[in-house]
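ugh ok so i messed up the first submission bc i forgot one of the chains. this is the corrected input, ALL of the components this time, i swear. 226 residues overall. if the numbers dont match what u have on ur side tell me asap before i send this to the collaborators (the ones from the other lab, u know who)
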Amino acid sequence: TQLLEQSPQFLSIQEGENLTVYCNSSSVFSSLQWYRQEPGEGPVLLVTVVTGGEVKKLKRLTFQFGDARKDSSLHITAAQPGDTGLYLCASLTSGTYKYIFGTGTRLKVLA
Amino acid sequence: DTEVTQTPKHLVMGMTNKKSLKCEQHMGHRAMYWYKQKAKKPPELMFVYSYEKLSINESVPSRFSPECPNSSLLNLHLHALQPEDSALYLCASSHGTGYLQETQYFGPGTRLLVL
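and heres the new structure output, hopefully the right one now
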């Protein structure tokens, strides 16, 4: 069974600090998505990473896909209160349309 | 445009009621999904439709009945629900063409409360 473990589970930081969230698996993935979800809303796609070693930047967010495509990280520089939310990594189970989600990282950025 | 819309936004129903949730996308996606999400948990897959045919049913109780009238619409019919079915119900869609980069786009969800 493919699993995606995220760490940390919870993170509370002050505005302006940097942070990194990790998504790890024992399986190889063809691609991996990162989403941010606010309470009562649907997950919003942040990025899809496909190639091993790939790095993508979205303003203050930097996403990296591991060389072996088994892990990924999300780094936020100078966090802002608007970054608060649940961060989810997700990937497709090989050969199906079944997404598996990571365990989630709940981030709170204090002003 | 990467928008998936869902109606209603909120729904309160009794255990004897029949209601439906609706989902729509106009991205030409051929795979559509229903998820259930409890507070502070990741979404849990319920159903997957591929080219308007049900391809995955994650052993969901029969009181939830999905329907895909056409490639743009997905419904979830609800009947005789239990209070523990209260949750955020999410619809998603993806290309459905079997590409390796099968990214799912989510709607805003319907918050359901069963009394």
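quick check: Chain B has a mean pLDDT of 93. that seems consistent at least. The interface with chain A takes residues 2, 4, 6, 31, 33, 40-43, 45, 48, 50, 55-56, 88, 90, 92, 94, 96, 100-109, 111 of chain B (CB under 8 Å).
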